Amino acid sequence: MPKILSDERQKELSLEVDETVRNFKREFPHIKGPISDSYATIEGLGFFIIGKHIDEDISGFHINIGEFKCIFVNRSHHYARQNQSLWHEVYHWYTGDTGHISSRAENEYNEMEFKAENFASKILIDRNELRKKIIDDNINVKFISKVNIIKLQNYFSASYMNVARALLEIYPNTLNPNRLNLGLQSQHDRLIEECKKNNLDYSIYDIPATDYISPSFIDDLNENYKNGQLLDSYLESVLNLIDEELNLNEG
Fold first, then answer.
1. Any bridge partners for residue 69, and if so which?
2. Which residue of 101, 109, 139, 219 could cross-link 2, Cys pair, CB 3.0 to 4.6 Å?
3. In a 10 Å sphere around its CB, with 0-12 CB exposed, 13-18 middle and 19+ buried, how is residue 69 labelled?
4. Where is the IrrE N-terminal-like domain (predicted)?
5. Do 43 and 216 contact (CB within 8 A), yes or no?
6. How many CB atoms lie within 10 A of CB 143?
7. Gap between the Cα atoms of 175 and 207, Å rounded
8. Would you list the DSSP string of 10-59?
9. What is the rounded (10 degree) CA torsion for 129, 159, 170, 125?
């Protein structure tokens, strides 16, 4: 069993990611937080997104299908997790630092996966924007409430745990670490109850009922087909390639 990354090593990797985030934002200055629709924003970068309900341990991967840049995301996860997974895969594309299919279980052990996850968090929750929001909303971080963090989660379209960890990163000597507890997977039902009790939106935790494919992907396939640039078997090959990447084929 590999060792969990030490706190010191995580801080070092986080600083490396800061530089990557700065470079990314210089290259794509139109991407500014809070990002209300990660699907549309990433499609605006020229990606096609394919979402499918699969085993919960798999988060996603990115793959080039011919001339198409594609990101696969697991639709069995709630939207907060999907947003994180999408930007995680953008990191792999942007840096060329790639491995295999991304899994939640690897983020605390694998340096590359940790950096991808940290990048995604910093794109969704711009740390300067978070600091500004704390000041503008007159929040005392030492006494920050669960309700405050839920409101921040909805503002940034990120999970409760993602926001809590970002706060701990910025205010390590101020935030009560117990504030992270409500973001644990084992406490998810309690988190939803807290949202309901305080009449707060929790649609970020909805799990979509349907699979997804970027409309422009279908449009491009149709256009290529009309122009005689697409073989009848191409779409089937695309789907078979995805199944092969996911190891879903039987036999």
1. 47, 64
2. 109
3. middle
4. 56-166
5. yes
6. 9
7. 30
8. HHHHHHHHHHHHHHHHHH-TT--SS-S-HHHHHHTTTEEEEEE---TTEE
9. -30
Structure tokens at 67: 């001339």
Q: Residue 97 has what pLDDT? A: 83
> How high is the pLDDT of residue 232?
53
CA distance 42 to 135: 29
List, in order, residues 6 or more apart from 132 with CB less than 8 Å away: none
Runs of H (alpha helix) within 96-210: 111-124, 127-136, 146-156, 160-170, 188-197
Q: Cβ neighbours of residue 54 under 8 Å, at least 6 residues apart? A: 74, 76, 246, 248
Position of tokens 């060792």?
3
pTM: 0.85
| Contacts for 187-190: CB closer than 8 Å, 24+ residues apart | none
